[in-house]
């Protein structure tokens, strides 16, 4: 009798427990890779970190409408939401690659390498990238993740004949070691990174701002109305709005910072250190800034006392003439250390207004989040065409020759601030008691000033509000209307008239392409006293 050999047993599909453990292995590999990348980032620069680099590319390529939705929905937390989203996506991919490794380790490792290449390309193609070394954190992180994934999946598969329970125990032991090691690496990276950033922090703490040759007058007593709920006339630094694209706030050492002024029509190119900037005529001015992303009634506006030097004076020192005087350049392009470019009309900067290179804000050096050590601001223009933070260079060119960052993304190349008024109190849907109810807020039309604010109750006539004392035409102005409120549901609407006599338009337009228009309204329910 002859016996034929039994056919080989087909490989058994991984058990559900093994698949879950493999996904966990992928997550641990991803965590280890990011931790090792963080260590390498310390040796390169914070902006080269994989999550920051990929997040920056997402910001650069996100349609303008989506960005506006994110700002409206998440406010100043939009960057945190974006980075969290990138991490969630990476976690999902890591878990998937871990599961794939059970069937094809080579395919999973190839996927890890692909993610590393994506991060590396994102880092070296960022506008602020200056070296191929920006690719190193992503590549090193991918290599570390691939090694961890390989070792963990080997533990889970186990040698031939090993009981599944023993293989899983060895996997969990290796996973625990990976978790501890990666966490240690991450803590070390943060510790070393914070030590490096301490140089910038120390330079800010040690900075002694110069006394202004042209100080701002004291804020008039009547500028701040005694109304509960109204925005303070001077916005504290900690409450000042922040809207920018920087996922990692640059921390620049004041001792190594410099600014270059060059380009068309520059007869004498300038390179200035902070100390040299301090030796120019220093001026102090109260100026209100607002973001073009600020919708009608929105929060992205603030008023501060700024210390700096007039930009027009530096341009004249470099031999620059405005177009009206025959200068060849009609645009100056300010560049930030993070690669942002902002285009501003040369004529506007040199027309006599207090366009500043500012290094002080409300009596202290600029906060890092607001541009330390030096930022640019131009009263009467939205921030996206004037407010370059962390500025490092100014190039004179033309609007025809160069589009700054926001222009290809659908925003206007030039954008003067539009007249706006906002009701701060009462809040929408509040329930004030019948009687005299202060309706109060702020209005702004920088470089034109505010001459009048009116309030309308429901469809009634416009009533003049009381204005706070004007501090200057470059600041906002507080106002209050003492409303004899009667019980019921009412809609309150405000409008302003600027210093030229132009009345704020009622036409409702969104923020794109050059700022929102329309009237701010709130609906309240007045309760019987």
Q: How would you summarize the topology of this molecule?
A:
Elements: H1 16-43, H2 50-61, H3 64-74, H4 78-103, H5 105-124, H6 136-157, H7 164-206, E1 258-263, E2 270-273, H8 274-278, E3 282-290, E4 301-310, H9 311-317, E5 331-336, E6 341-345, H10 346-349, E7 356-361, E8 364-365, E9 375-377, E10 391-397, E11 420-425, E12 435-444, E13 450-457, E14 462-464, E15 466-467, E16 477-485, E17 488-498, E18 520-526
Parallel strand pairs: 1-10
Antiparallel strand pairs: 1-2, 3-4, 4-7, 5-6, 5-10, 7-8, 7-9, 11-12, 12-16, 13-14, 13-17, 15-16, 17-18
Task: Describe what is shown at a glance.
With 529 residues, the chain is α+β, with helices and mostly antiparallel strands. The longest helix is centred in the middle third of the chain and has 43 residues.
Give an overview of the whole structure.
This protein is an alpha+beta fold. The chain is 34% helix and 22% strand. The chain contains 10 helices and 18 strands. The N and C termini lie far apart (108 Å). Residues 8-13 have low confidence and may be disordered.
Q: Which class of secondary structure composition applies to the elements?
A: alpha+beta
Written as H for each helix and E for each strand, in order along the chain, the element string is HHHHHHHEEHEEHEEHEEEEEEEEEEEE
User: Which strand-content bin applies to the residues?
Assistant: 15-25%
Quick one: overall form?
A: globular
- What's the number of helices? 10
Return residue spans where pLDDT drops below 50 for at least 5 consecutive residues: 8-13
Rg over C-alpha atoms, rounded to the nearest angstrom: 29 Å
Strands of the largest sheet, in order across it? 2-1-10-5-6
Ends apart, CA distance between termini:
108 Å
Helix residue percentage: 25-40%
Give the biggest sheet.
Answer: 5 strands, mixed
Number of strands: 18
């Amino acid at each position: 009798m002859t016996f034929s050999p039994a056919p080989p047993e087909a490989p058994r599909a991984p058990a559900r427990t093994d698949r879950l453990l493999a996904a966990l292995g992928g997550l641990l590999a991803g965590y280890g890779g990011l931790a090792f990348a963080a260590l390498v980032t310390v040796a390169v620069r914070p902006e080269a970190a994989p999550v920051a680099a990929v997040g920056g590319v997402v910001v650069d390529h996100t349609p303008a409408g989506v960005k506006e939705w994110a700002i409206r929905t998440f406010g100043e937390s939009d960057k945190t939401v974006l980075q969290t989203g990138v991490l969630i996506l990476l976690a999902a991919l890591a878990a998937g690659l871990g599961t794939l490794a059970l069937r094809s380790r080579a395919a999973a490792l190839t996927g890890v390498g692909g993610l590393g290449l994506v991060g590396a390309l994102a880092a070296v193609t960022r506008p602020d990238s200056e070296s191929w070394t920006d690719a190193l954190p992503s590549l090193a992180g991918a290599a570390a993740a691939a090694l961890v994934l390989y070792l963990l999946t080997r533990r889970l598969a186990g040698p031939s004949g090993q009981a599944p329970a023993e293989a899983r125990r060895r996997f969990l032991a290796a996973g625990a070691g990976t978790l501890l090691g990666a966490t240690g690496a991450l803590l070390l990276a943060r510790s070393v990174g914070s030590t490096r950033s301490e140089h910038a922090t120390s330079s800010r703490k040690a900075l002694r701002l110069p006394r202004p040759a042209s100080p701002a007058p004291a804020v008039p007593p009547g500028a701040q109305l005694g109304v509960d709920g109204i925005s303070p006339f001077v916005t504290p630094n900690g409450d000042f709005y922040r809207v920018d694209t920087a996922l990692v706030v640059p921390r620049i050492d004041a001792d190594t910072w410099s600014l270059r002024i060059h380009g068309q029509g520059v007869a004498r190119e300038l390179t200035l250190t902070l100390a040299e900037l301090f030796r120019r005529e220093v001026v102090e001015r109260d100026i209100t800034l607002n973001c073009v992303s600020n919708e009608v009634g929105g929060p992205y506006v603030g008023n501060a006392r700024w210390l700096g030097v007039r930009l027009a004076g530096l341009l004249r020192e470099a031999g620059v003439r405005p177009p009206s005087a025959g200068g060849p350049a009609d645009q100056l392009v300010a560049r930030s250390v993070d690669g942002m470019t902002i285009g501003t009309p040369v004529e506007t900067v040199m027309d006599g207004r207090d366009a500043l290179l500012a290094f002080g804000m409300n009596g202290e050096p600029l906060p890092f989040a607001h541009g330390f050590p030096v930022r640019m601001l131009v009263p009467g223009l939205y921030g996206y065409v004037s407010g370059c933070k962390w500025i490092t260079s100014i190039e004179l060119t033309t609007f025809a020759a160069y589009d700054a960052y926001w222009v290809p993304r659908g925003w206007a190349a030039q954008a003067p601030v539009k007249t706006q008024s906002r009701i701060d109190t009462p809040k929408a849907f509040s329930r004030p008691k019948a009687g005299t109810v202060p309706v109060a807020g702020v209005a702004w039309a920088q470089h034109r000033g505010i001459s009048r604010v009116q309030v309308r109750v429901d469809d009634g006539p416009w009533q003049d509000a009381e204005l706070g004392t004007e501090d200057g035409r470059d600041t906002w102005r507080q106002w209050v209307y003492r409303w004899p409120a009667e019980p019921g549901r009412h809609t309150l609407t405000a409008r302003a008239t600027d210093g030229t006599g132009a009345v704020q338009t009622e036409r409702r337009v969104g923020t794109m392409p050059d700022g929102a228009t329309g009237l701010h309204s709130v609906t309240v329910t007045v309760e019987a006293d």
